[in-house]
Every structure is written in C-alpha cells, then in structure tokens.
Amino acid sequence: MECPGPMKQFGAFRLDAGNQCLWRGSKRIAVRPRPFAVLEYLVEHPGRLVTHDEILDALWPETFVQPQILRTYVLDLRKVLGDDAGEPKYIETLPKRGYQFVAAVSTYLPSSPKAADAAAVPDAALAAPALAGREAELARLRAEFRSASGGQRRVVWVTGETGMGKTTLVDAFAGELEASGSATIARGQCVDGLAAREPYYPVTEALRALCASTSAETACAALARLAPAWLSAVGRGGAGERMVAPQERLPGNVMAALEAVAADAPLLLVLEDLQWADTYTLDLISALARRRAPAKLLVVATVRTLDAAAMPDSQRLMQELVTRHLSSEICLQPLTLRSMQTLLAAKLGQAELPAGLAGFVHRHSEGNPLFAVALLEHLMGERILVQEQEAGPWKARAPFETVERRVPSGLAQMIALEMEQLSAEEQTLLEAGSLMGVAFPAWAVAAALERDAAEAEEACEDLARRVHFIHRGGVDELPDGSRSTFFVFVHGLYREVLYDRQTAARRGRRHGRIARRLEELFAGREADVAREIAQHFEAAGEWRPAVDALLAAARRAGERQAQDEAAELRRQALALAGNLREAERQAVLESLGEPAL
Fold first, then answer.
1. Please, what is the average pLDDT of the chain?
2. Residue 283 class from Cβ within 10 Å (0-12 exposed, 13-18 middle, 19+ buried)?
3. How far apart, in Å, are the Cα atoms of 587 and each of 137, 219, 575, 579, 596?
4. Which of 130, 82, 157 is nearest to 372 (CA)?
5. The pLDDT value given to residue 389
6. Nearby residues of 481 by Cβ (< 8 Å), 6 or more positions away
7. What DSSP designation does 560 have?
8. What is the pLDDT of residues 260-311, one digit of tens each?
9. Taxonomically, which superkingdom (predicted)?
10. Which CATH fold would you assign to the domain 134-331?
11. Which CATH architecture is the domain 410-502 placed in?
C-alpha cells in the first residue's frame, strides 16, 4: 500500500482528502460526500470570504444546486466539528455572502499508511464485497455476542438510511454464528402495513423459524412448558387447538421461553425493519431489555433512520433504551472513498480500478452501498465499463465525468415503487419540490402548483414528518420580509426520479411559474437571482425571458468587475438566443455587440 499523502490539519482535526473523511486522533469520522466537498474547499481557501456562488461553481459547475443546500451542508459540518455558529472556531457565516474558514490550517504528514487512499485494494479484500467498510460494525456485533454468551443480555439496534447495508451486516454476522455452531438463531421481519392487522408478526415469524430449525425440539419444549399460547400461534399446538388472540400471548411467557432456549446455547434473535413494528412487538423488546435476570440472549433489531421530526415509535423506544444504557446502537454511515474502492474492487474482482471510477461512484451514490452497486451495474450494462476479453480486467471506454447522468433503471423502479405508496397529492408536492434541486423552499412548491404559500408549507411540513424521502432543512428570509421553510431530499437520486417522471410539458409550466415568482419576490433586485431565473425559464422553453435574465446577470457581474463571469453569462445568453425568432435574435446580437447573422 502506498504511503498516505499530506493532510490538512486544523484544531483537533485532520482532513484526509484521499479517503474523504476526517480524523480526530486515531478516530476516523465519516462525512457525507457533499458536505465533505464543501469543507475541503473551505479548508483549501482559509482566511477569506468564499461566496455561495464560488462554492457552487467550483463544486457543481454543471449541476443546478440551490444555495439553501449549502446551509444544510454547513449545519452538518458544524455538528461533526462541534462548531458554534454564534462563536465559530472553524466556519464563520457571513450573512447574504458566504462563509470563511477561520481556523489556522497546517500540513500534516502521516507516519503510517493506515489512513491512506490507494488506487489498488489488497487482494484479501476482494473476497467480501458486501462488508466493505463495515468491519468495525461487525466487530462490535461480535463483542456484543461475547457479552451475551457470558450471560449479559444485550439489545443492539442497527440503524441507517435505506441501502446502507443493515441487513447485509446482520446476514454476515448471523452467517458466522451459524457456521461456527456457536448460537441458536431466530429471525423475523416486519412488513409495511401489517402492524395494525397482525400484532407480534415478526416475533411469531422468528418463533416459527426457530421451531423448524435444528433447535426445534428445545424450542418447542420450552414454548409448550412456558408459553403454550405462543406455541399454538406458530402452528405447533395440538390437533384441533384453537388459534389464540394476541392478548392471550403474554410477553412474560415468551420471554421466559426464549431465556430457556438460551440456557443451552446463546440465542440470537434478529428482528428486522422495526420502523414498521406494531406496539406489541416494541413492548416485548422493551421488556426484554429491562429484565434484570441474566440470559445468554442477544437481540439485534434493524431500523431505517428517519428525520427526528418523523421519529416513529421504534426510534423513540431505541432512544429511550440507549439513553438508559439498556441497549446500544450501531449506526451505519455512508461509505468513505476508501471503503467504496474496496466494495467496487470486490464487485469487479480486480484490485486495480479504472481511473476515476471510485470517485465517480462515490460522489453520485453519496456513499450509499446499494446505490453504488446499482450505479456500477448501470455502467457495465451501458458498456461504459467493459471487459476486452473474457475474465479480463474491467476498463473504462470513456472518462467517467463525461458520462450522462441517469438513474439506473433498477434503482429508479425501486424508488418509484416507494413513491407509489404515497398519495397522489403527496407525490405532486414532491414532484414540485424536485424542480428546484436537492433542496427546495415551500414557496417554490406553492408557485409551481399555483397554491397558497402557507397551505403548501404546512403540507410539506406534514410530509417531512411522515416520510423518509425529505427532511426539514431550515427557514429562509425572503426579500419582502416573509419567511419560508425549505426542505432537503435525503438523496439526490430521489430528486432525479421525481423530476424525470413528470412530463416535459408539465415540468415546463411549473418551471415557468417558479421563474415568474422569483421575479416577483426579487422585484427591483432581479439581477441578484438572474442566473436562477434564467435556468427556470430555459427549462420552461421560454427563451426570451431566459436570455434577458442572463444579460441582466452579465451587466451586474460587469459592475462588480467580474469580467470573466460576465463574459461567460453573455456566452450563455448568446447560445440561448439561437432559439429565438429571427427579429428577436438580431436584437439580442445587437445588444451584445455581435455581428448580425
């Protein structure tokens, strides 16, 4: 492995650009790709104002990114750094202008390669693609199992967003225990929509599997002796025995039976997707965690992370038990660039990756393993990644940054299926939000749909509390003194699917309404948001307003002596003028001092 290159050090932190993470002492701190990119840019330009436009142009030059999203990224960074916006040690906000990195920055030369980012991945890592970047979490599960094996009951929550690999991690852990024969394993899974109709569903499923396993004799005997109603519920009661109601399945009885099963060998009880759990199941987990009697029992529960405002009963229970030290949490973070390299190398079966592949997939998947694998398969299916000969190395046919960005079809279908579970009104709100970018203000949703602003904001607030697709980002103050909440999609791919599913005509009408609302909001100051206005008019196919907005922005840039920016804006205006009718096009050319065609 190559020695790591120099890092930037500030305060107690070191910025590892190659691995796209932070270090604090020997602890590696994962940071999402986009907030990390903002931090890296600020650290590279310390001690001076970095404007919003400069950051957006430098980091996402070909992508329309709402300025509000920068506030969300900086908020994330402040949480990671422990920074206070009122008395900043690292990032100072300069209202209406941008940010300044105020900490002293120095160069740090690592003495060991442990944090290095290398283009090649050790061959040993090629054998376990699913667990790339999850070695520490797997080690924690092993440690929890050792505690449980000694008689100290344990409840562990494995949390993370969709696609972070919760089930994959638990599968690998359970597979280890099963292969070694060191534990009895029972697994059950919650199903969306069943909570209200079938109490104890995941627990019943786990018991049913247990009674059909190699430990069936022990399990059935324990249930028959201590929890006969539960034995009947899993279909193992006597012939003709009636089905029992959930109220007859006392939690104390099944807990005693589970502990009896664990007397001979440690018991691993896995309950998945508890964001959809019924209250009976959650009460049982709570009771298992609170019982004081020793037991060789390890409960592993997986929960999809939601925004704090949308916290379901399962997350409230988890928070309470963790706070009281009655359980622990393993939160799966996005993969670092280094871990992404390991994942991709394992998937491709080669240690040396095509140049730029890991960075491209890491940026566009935002470190999400499920999305990363889907993007990789998309590149292979589109023959952007090819094998020139059978079993030969995979190579890139073109630079990855030139590849047209499209959501892989399989991933788009998965996201679309999730969207279909929402009402038509909820889908319409999200579609309108997608017109603005990853972050969107409520006023823009109202404008796109021709709705009352207050009603649209309330609807978005309610949606953010109930679904995981978006979360509340903050509040913007508008030029007229009013305030509007803005929201953020949890991942850019959700936004892209919602944008693409709208017909071109519908998108165009909505973009045009947003552009005109921007002109109203910034009346007299249109040049401040001229580029944004132009982008919406261009998307609407309204070419003359788009050209006029770009020319206004060019004039403002010229007044600021930003000649390069002014020239680029005029070039964009000239390009769009090609869509105008002859007379209008000639008028624009004359205003630009260009020769008539």
1. 85
2. middle
3. 64, 85, 14, 13, 9
4. 130
5. 80
6. none
7. T
8. 999 988 999 999 999 889 999 999 999 999 998 999 999 999 998 864 444 5
9. Bacteria
10. Rossmann fold (3.40.50)
11. Orthogonal Bundle (1.10)
